[in-house]
Amino acid sequence: MPRLFTAIEIPEDVGSTLSLLRGGISGARWIDPEFYHVTLRFVGDVDDALARDIALMLGQVRRRAFDMVLDGLDQFGGHKPRAVFATVKANPALLELQAEQERIMQRLGLAPERSFRPHVTLARLRDASTRQVADYLAMRGLYRSMPFHVPRFVLYSSRDSVGGGPYVVEAEYPLG
């Protein structure tokens, strides 16, 4: 039973700049740069038949390629930080692509996903102090990537783990 999600891959040169942000938070599990991505739609554990239907329906997506920029750092978890991430600059093409995938998944019977907040997870946190995370964000929070081209999205599978990879590209979908 595969665990699936759709995503945009982060180019190697952008991943290299993100990897320079590693360190400075005790107990953080830093994501390996080759696994950086922007999740569009988490699907979860599905049977093989539904996985095939998902792959087929995603092949019907017809969207234009676009450019994207990572713009700043933030954290999830508030007073109990769980992750630090790079934020994605507002992008209508990205939002439209994600919304189309959300509609496809709901047509296939999957429950609606929570609100979409595009980001690239840099580290997962366990017992990190809010002060340490605040200091990290204050020092590195002005990060901004160069614009990069998004020529496709992918369908990833992952094993049930604590996150951060390894991910396998099951299918790729070019954007026109």
Give the overall average pLDDT. Answer: 95
Share of β-strand residues: 25-35%
Residue stretches low in confidence (pLDDT < 50, at least 5 long) are none
What is the number of helices?
4
Largest sheet: 4 strands, antiparallel
The H-and-E topology, N to C, reads as EHEEHEEEHEHEEE
What strand order characterises the main sheet?
3-1-9-10
Number of strands: 10
In whole angstroms, the N-to-C terminal distance is: 31 Å
Radius of gyration: 16 Å
Q: Which word captures the global form?
A: globular
Notable traits:
176 residues, alpha+beta, 4-stranded antiparallel sheet, 10 strands, 26% helix, 33% strand, globular
